[in-house]
Amino acid sequence: MGRGDHNGVGWAERLTPEDRRAISPLFWTHINPYGRFYLDMDARLDLTAA
């Protein structure tokens, strides 16, 4: 178990820019900027036209 000092606001001031870049995916993983792609795994791709 931890000491519980992550509950205070003081931890945010101790973060370096590298720390902020490392944890930012944790807050933004629910956003998909590319939309949804639905894959039909039963259909084959027509690669002869390419």
Q: Which band does the percent of strand residues land in?
A: under 5%
Total number of beta strands: 0
Looking at how many chains there are and whether they match, the oligomeric state comes to single chain
* N- to C-terminal distance: 58 Å
Give the overall shape. rod-shaped
Q: Which class do the helix and strand fractions yield?
A: mainly alpha
Outline the biggest β-sheet: none
Task: Report the helical percentage.
Answer: 25-40%
What is the averaged pLDDT score? 78
Radius of gyration: 21 Å
SSE arrangement, N to C: HH
- Counting H and I runs of at least 4 residues, what is the number of helices? 2
| Poorly predicted segments | none
Description:
It is built from 2 helices and no strands. It has helices at 10-14, 17-28. The chain is rod-shaped and about 60 Å long. It starts with 9 loop residues before the first helix and ends in a 22-residue tail after the last helix. The relative contact order is 0.07.
Briefly say what this structure is:
By secondary structure, the chain is mainly alpha-helical.
Considering the chains and any ligands shown, give keywords for the structure.
50 residues, single chain, rod-shaped, 34% helix, mainly alpha
Give the SSE layout.
Layout: H1 10-14, H2 17-28
